[in-house]
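ok new one. same drill as before - structure tokens go in, u give me an amino acid for every spot. 336 of them this time. try not to just spam alanines like last time pls lmao
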């Protein structure tokens, strides 16, 4: 799912200024449609009011159209929303957009009717000014909500584009070789996108196996509790929880992170109840990884890992693949 379609949201003062100028521009470009002075003034005032109101209605409608229905998001995105923004505040602000839109429509109809029935040209102009004042007041009242929604938009833009397809999560501490493994699994020129959160990134790559597109997610791990995780760690946790069909855990024998911490993180993955295999990176630096191979049935051969993944996703359904790989994991022994 992509949130790139959510357009930037202007503040109230900008929206009002643009809408008022639209009204003036509409009149300047319109040909004179009547030689009768009263009728011509009526046409002018109606055009100005209509152009101004239509511009604002279009902007509020765009906000409501662009923003996702949070309660209808997939579990991954729904939980990501809950942990990265104030859910109640965003819903309240979207409600304020509906309120403003309804009020603008109501006053637009009311004052258009007044001008249509009026025969006094000065009164027509007065009605138009009254409408402008009321509309400006409405937009100013929701200014804080416009700010909240634009902030939420920026957060949505930072969300990774996660597809609803078979998924492998490559898991481990930062800098253990996950991104290198992702690149090697998905080819020499992989389709990899980075989604920045502060100085870290969440990478997503794709590989086609037996005509099926497989999604690979580089998911940095942590031993922190969820409420102490940073944004990228929360994304990784939620990806493993809601999206991954297979976890590939990467051990780093150079121990940039102490081995006891790597083992502890590996063991915490049991809470996801997902098929899991271990892979050892950086064997060009530390060739002897026999202890990891014997204790955790860890793989060092990329081709074997790739064949296992291919075999898993050659099954017709994810459920069947889970059954197959779970059996492999249990039979290989001591993975957890």
């Amino acid at each position: 799912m992509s949130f790139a379609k959510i357009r930037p949201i202007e503040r109230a003062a900008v929206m009002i200024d643009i809408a008022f100028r639209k009204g003036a521009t509409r009149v300047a470009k319109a040909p004179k449609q009547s030689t009768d002075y009263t009728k011509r003034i009526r046409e002018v005032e109606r055009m100005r009011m209509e152009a101004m109101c239509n511009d604002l209605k279009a902007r509020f409608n765009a906000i409501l159209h662009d923003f996702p229905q949070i309660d209808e998001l997939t579990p991954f995105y729904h939980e990501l929303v809950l942990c990265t923004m104030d859910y109640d505040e965003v819903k309240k602000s979207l409600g304020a957009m509906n309120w403003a839109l309804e009020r603008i429509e109501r006053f637009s109809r009311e004052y258009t009717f007044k001008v249509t029935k009026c025969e006094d040209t000065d009164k027509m102009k007065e009605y138009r000014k009254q409408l402008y004042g009321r509309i400006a007041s409405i937009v100013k009242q929701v200014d804080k909500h416009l700010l909240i929604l634009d902030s939420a938009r920026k957060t949505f833009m930072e969300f990774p584009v996660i597809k609803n397809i078979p998924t492998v999560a490559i898991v481990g501490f930062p800098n253990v070789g996950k991104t290198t493994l992702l690149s090697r699994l998905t080819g020499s020129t992989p389709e990899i996108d980075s989604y920045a959160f502060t100085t870290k990134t969440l990478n997503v790559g794709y590989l086609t196996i037996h005509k099926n597109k497989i999604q690979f997610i580089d998911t940095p791990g942590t031993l922190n509790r969820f409420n102490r995780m940073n944004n990228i760690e929360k994304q990784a946790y939620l990806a493993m929880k809601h999206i991954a069909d297979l976890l590939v855990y990467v051990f780093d024998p150079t121990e940039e992170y102490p081995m006891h911490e790597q083992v502890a993180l590996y063991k915490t993955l049991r809470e996801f109840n997902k098929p899991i295999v271990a892979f050892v990176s950086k064997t060009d630096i530390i060739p002897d990884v026999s202890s990891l191979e014997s204790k955790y049935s860890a793989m060092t051969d990329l081709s074997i890992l790739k064949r296992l993944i291919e075999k898993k996703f050659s099954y017709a359904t994810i459920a069947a693949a889970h059954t197959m790989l779970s059996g492999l994991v249990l039979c290989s022994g001591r993975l957890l």
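Residues 327-336 have pLDDT under 50 and may be disordered. and btw The chain is about 55% helix and 10% strand.
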